[in-house]
Amino acid sequence: MSTLVQINVLPHQTEDDDYIAELAFKKARLRADDVREWDIRKRSIDARKSPVKISLQIEFWKKDEERPKIPPFIPQDVSQAPEIAIIGAGPAGLYAALRAVEGGLKPIVYERGKDVRARRRDLAAINKEHIVNPESNYCFGEGGAGTYSDGKLYTRSKKRGNVLKALEWFVHFGAVEDILVDAHPHIGTNKLPKIITAMREAIIEYGGEVHFNSKLTDISVKDNAIEAIQINEGKWLSYSNVILATGHSARDIFYLLHKRNIKIEAKPFAIGVRIEHKQELIDNIQYHSDGDNPYLPPASYSLVQQVDGMGVYSFCMCPGGIIAPCATAQEEIVTNGWSPSKRDNPYANSGIVVSVTPEDLPNYKEGDPFVCLDFQKSVERSCWEAAGKTQAAPAQRMRDFVDGRVSKNFPKTSYQPGIVSVDLNKVLPNILSKRLKKAFVAFGKKMKGYLTNEAIIHAPESRTSSPVSIPRKWETLEHVDIKGLYPCGEGAGYAGGIISAAIDGINCVDKIVEKIVEK
Prior knowledge:
Blueprint: E1 3-9, H1 17-28, E2 35-46, E3 53-62, E4 83-87, H2 91-103, E5 106-110, H3 119-129, H4 163-172, H5 192-205, E6 209-211, E7 216-222, E8 225-231, E9 236-238, E10 242-244, H6 251-259, E11 265-266, E12 269-278, H7 279-286, E13 304-307, E14 310-318, E15 322-325, E16 335-338, E17 347-356, H8 371-386, E18 393-397, H9 398-403, E19 419-421, H10 424-427, H11 430-446, E20 456-461, E21 468-469, E22 485-487, H12 498-516
Parallel strand pairs: 4-5, 4-10, 5-6, 10-22, 18-19
Antiparallel strand pairs: 1-3, 2-3, 7-8, 8-9, 11-21, 12-17, 12-20, 13-14, 14-17, 15-16, 18-20
Helix pairs in contact: 2-5, 2-12
């Protein structure tokens, strides 16, 4: 059994392995001769006070201890195995397919969008020509929303499943091993496409199938069990087990399920804006004026405040990042953020969002599954109209927003389609704007310098999570009414990021393996 110790070092000392080993040996009361090997198990930044320190968890294996080496991915040839359908090739769908290959099932993946390489042309069209392809964009296509929106792998969902396994699969398919160590692991949008491609190639190599430009357009249920699915309004395909991993923006799926009398429900979600500061400012705030320390990464932040009975918090914070247009239809504006692997852009951005429940909304109707979705759509359309009906985003300087002034000009922004000066107090619903203003003032007290007119608010940040849930049984993970239908991942309301979605995909397949392979 290995030994764990915790040590703190200064940033520049992280490159001195001899010093780290000496300090860790002393803390563990071990001699170098007692140790077979050691490694850094976890790494995090402690910036609560100056000087900033790096916290390291060191793991030792003594001379009489063998370090376990278990292959992270153990595939089978599933070309002749029982088939399951997986709708969506985001993290939930891909990880479900990989787990199926391990578990002795043949995954047939249907993805409405394009492969990861072909998606790039459609992303360029959004940024440069303001053209939104409703089937291929930042949300739809191989890898899902995470592929081209950062690749942050941090999750609080430790109880949902095996986080380490999910991370190890990323490493197996090409990610750097640092993601196994860092407290807030991150791959980067520039590196994710190659990893996603390697996952798809493995699924196909071992007998699975992946079909692009293949949209679920109908579903057939008989005797309260899944019977068949229809792809691209074509022929019906018979399946008795279907994993629905369509992501938080596949609104047509919610409407389809409702049309077929398959139960869905409105669920709480969060909606707000995306704020952009200069990274240099955030570094100096978080690192106590030591922002130019070359041994420290670009700083991030996490903020939360209760305002008038609702939580307002930072979401998907992107150090050294870029704000991207993430609409899935032409007549809407949606912003999101991402960072490259080096996080070396001059800007820091984060969603600042208000947590709302269905009952909070002005359009609330008891039993209406679309109350949150309708509110989300109305905000996105209002922002589209306010900024001139292109993919330019309505924007305002931060202090101007708090004080109710229209901004006369702007500093540079990373948002490529451009921004239009508006009074967001008049564009956003009052339930959002008044709480955001109070939260920004509170955040300015928590982070001195955060509330500045050099920061730009871009609206809206509206796709934090699904506004609709698809209820399922906890014991089988099947839909509460439909056998063989497995609502999965963010789109069904059971995940909140890449890793939690990936774990949910694994968990759903585990239940099918129990039912089919192991019975």
